[in-house]
Amino acid sequence: QVQLVESGGGLVQAGGSLRLSCAASGSILSINTMGWYRQAPGKQRELVASIGSGGSTTYADSVKGRFAISRDNGKNTVYLQMNSLKPDDTAVYYCNANPVVPSTYGYRYLEVWGQGTLVTVSS
Description:
Layout: E1 2-7, E2 10-13, E3 18-26, E4 30-39, E5 46-51, E6 57-59, E7 67-72, E8 77-82, E9 91-103, E10 106-109, E11 112-113, E12 117-122
Parallel strand pairs: 2-12
Antiparallel strand pairs: 1-3, 3-8, 4-5, 4-9, 5-6, 7-8, 9-10, 9-11, 9-12
């Protein structure tokens, strides 16, 4: 069983910054891609940023230059530094991870989601 625990959401004024954290716990051999998604009211969930185990990153066009994703493999934790926040960034942010876990036959791949953390940006 692998769990993701997110923290760092909250209310911030436009132009401000927030840092989200997501820690994975459980019987984990390694974690491949980790990422952040968001879902605004009435909209579909979308990828915000992702980072591979080697550090390669991907960003949504809407956040490029403002957000930065990073990870600490020793702590199984991924971070999202959000700067120059806009009201359009208001959403529930979800952490996503692809851990490799032990199994009867060696190992298996999982996909796990966090419970979500609300980010509200006021104008």
